[in-house]
Design brief:
five-stranded mixed sheet; Protein Transport Mog1p, Chain A; alpha+beta
Length: 217
Amino acid sequence: MKRSIQIIIYLMCLIIEIQGSENTYYQIPNVLIIGIPDCMELDDGVYSEISDSIKKYIDIISNSIVFHQKGLNQLEQNSFTSYARILISYEKESNDFGPIIDPSEIPQSDMKILDNQFKKNVSDGLLLGTKKLKSINQGPLILEKWIGTNLEQYKGYSSLVYRFIRTMGSAKPVYVETHTIFTRKNIISITISCRLDDKDTLFKDIFEIMNTILLID
């Protein structure tokens, strides 16, 4: 009951704070609530509208959801001239004594090891993606630039964040950042990406979503 009151108060404060903005609020039950700007839309999934008053409040019933540039669901012609994605996924865990892993306690020497591991994971993923794209004469996926891994704070929780730039064939470079947040009950991964040219213009709002999150822990 106490948690429900906190969520209601949080949403009311957000509505008051950003009445001039255009966000849709989504909830993954027992995981998080997050505000997604209206330049994005939900890419297929099981969800239900809870209300449509001042802000939409939509429940997500899935452990992995994707948002892409608005208009793509309806195959609108202008939606193919840009590229943007927000991927949210989570794994259920449990630890009554605090976050499952507290990145703030990771020694600096180990951060370099983590950075190398993240870079390897991304490189391996792009290589696998290249093999899949080859069958449809697309690709290759190339890690153009590894920006690095940082420790950041969100809503009282530590997050490991890595950033990089990748290319696919002759397409424009894409900027990617992945946030991994550890709570007492979940490991939450949020990946935000768009064409590098659009990062500070057309899709600049998608990089503000981390400031809208309420973790339900």
